Amino acid sequence: MENQFSRTELLIGKDGVNKLQSSRVAVFGIGGVGGYVVEALVRSGLGEIDIIDNDKVALSNLNRQIIATHDAIGQFKVDAMGKRIKDINPNCKVNKYKTFFTPETSSEFDFSKYNYVVDAIDTVSGKIELVMKCNETNTPIISSMGAGNKLHPEMFEISDIYKTSVCPLAKVMRQELKKRGIKKLKVVYSEEPPIKPNFEEKSTSGKQVPGSISFVPSAVGLIIAGEVIRHLLHICHLFANER
């Protein structure tokens, strides 16, 4: 019988495939970055995934988000992604949360159940809360720094938050995590200086909307997915003390 993961098994072995099928990962935010994280994890054979996002697919998402099509506009992102996951791997268990993750909603989640957590949300308060919750349960987490206003995906790299520079979001995260006594956080970031948008476009909160393009958030998402999978398989960890 044909096996959809046969090519993956050639690379990581049957034990590796079985390990992924028995693992559970939570992806907070399934937009430009998070959507590609989910895509890669599911195509790699992850057995269970939690997807957390309260947004609906909008026309402005079509330039960069893997679930965004004209047919999907107006659908909740978790619904569109949930259907896509089942089309790719019917055996993957999908837990959907139409929730905007904040310190106020964090009690809805049991972080001890996750083998890994991916932070692909935009708000600093939410990102900090994710890190704190994972720290409490000793759950591995990787956090996406700024992917907007960038044009060079090849400049993104995996690092510790305290070794980052240039990225404005990473700077804020360093400051806030230091205040809270967090000594490390695995992140994906870039030292490419942010490009100033050509015109002003405000979000509903009144903040300037960052510019984006198809090949940057997707690259960040795939980098993150690769790191998660290698961690689950105990392959090539970036930090020696995580072995």
Describe this structure in words.
With 243 residues, this protein is α/β, with parallel strands linked by helices. Helices cover 34% and strands 14% of the residues. It has 6 helices and 7 strands. It has helices at 6-21, 32-43, 77-88, 124-137, 168-179, 217-232; strands at residues 24-28, 48-52, 93-97, 116-119, 141-144, 156-160, 186-190. It has a 7-stranded mixed sheet with strand order 3-2-1-4-5-7-6, with helices on both faces. Helix 2 (32-43) links the parallel strand 1 and strand 2. The radius of gyration is 17 Å and the shape is globular. Mean pLDDT is 94; it is low at 238-243.
Gross morphology: globular
Low-confidence stretches: 238-243
Structural class: alpha/beta
Across the major sheet, the strand order is 3-2-1-4-5-7-6
Average residue-wise pLDDT: 94
Contiguous helical run count: 6
Q: What about the largest sheet?
A: 7 strands, mixed
Rg from alpha-carbon coordinates? 17 Å
Helix content: 25-40%
Q: Give the assembly state of these chains.
A: single chain
SSE order: HEHEHEEHEEHEH
Number of strands: 7
How large is the share of residues in beta strands?
A: 5-15%
Kindly report how far apart the N and C termini lie: 36 Å
